[in-house]
Structure formats: C-alpha cells, structure tokens
Amino acid sequence: MKLHIGDQIIVTVGKDKGRKGKVEKVFPETDKVRVAGLNVYKKHVKSYMGQKGGIVERFRPLPVSNVMLVCPECGKATRVGYRFDKIGSKDRICKACNAIIKIEKENKK
Ligand SMILES: [Zn+2]
User: Fold this and answer.
1) CA of residue 8 to ligand 1 center, whole Å
2) R_g of the chain computed on alpha carbons
3) CATH number of the 8-94 domain
4) Where are the domains positioned within the chain?
5) What is the pLDDT of residues 52-107, one digit of tens each?
6) How far apart are CA 32 and CA 64, in angstroms?
7) pTM (2 d.p.)
8) From 86's CA, which of 9, 39, 53, 56 has a CA 20 to 30 Å away?
9) According to the model, what pLDDT value does residue 109 have?
C-alpha cells in the first residue's frame, strides 16, 4: 500500500476528478482509500426508535488507482518512489522533486 492515513491526494478519475483531500482510512485488502469530503453519497435514513430520519452523507472508499499522492514539498500529483537510507529504513520519495514524503501514520496490518 503506497498511501497512508494523513496523505494528501488528488482524484484523477470520475466525478470528483481534480479534487483534493486527506486520506482518513485505508483498505489494503481492497486497495481502496477513504478520503474525507470525497465520493460522497447521500443516504436516506428512516426515523427509528426516536432517532430523527433524514439524509446523511457518507464517504465511499475510492480505488487507489483513481487517486494520486500530492507531494507536500512541491505540491505536484506524483508517483511514489522508495529509497533506503543509511540505516536501511525505507523512505517514500516524490518522483518529481525527490523529497521524502513522511508517513504520518503507519497503516495497521
Ligand atoms: Zn515533490
């Protein structure tokens, strides 16, 4: 999984094309990410047990192939590369400017 929680992404396909957002959840099994404010669908909820009905907004996960990472350094939509540092830990790098893109939060296995 190349994307992590907290990454800025831009949508490259579909009705939200060109919109940016922040990854709030990753689904490695299905290669999808959920991004706050993107791929919204409205769900009608019936009133039930004293809870008010109405329309609630939900965010559907997007396929990873439909989004690109936005580099925090150069601001470009970029492909992710990897580089190993001297102590052998793996860094994600921006293929446009070679800046290291920090992982805010490791994905849980
Ligand atoms: Zn960059």
Assistant:
1) 12
2) 17
3) 2.30.30.30
4) 8-94
5) 889 988 889 999 999 999 999 999 999 999 999 888 888 999 999 999 998 877 76
6) 5
7) 0.81
8) 9
9) 58
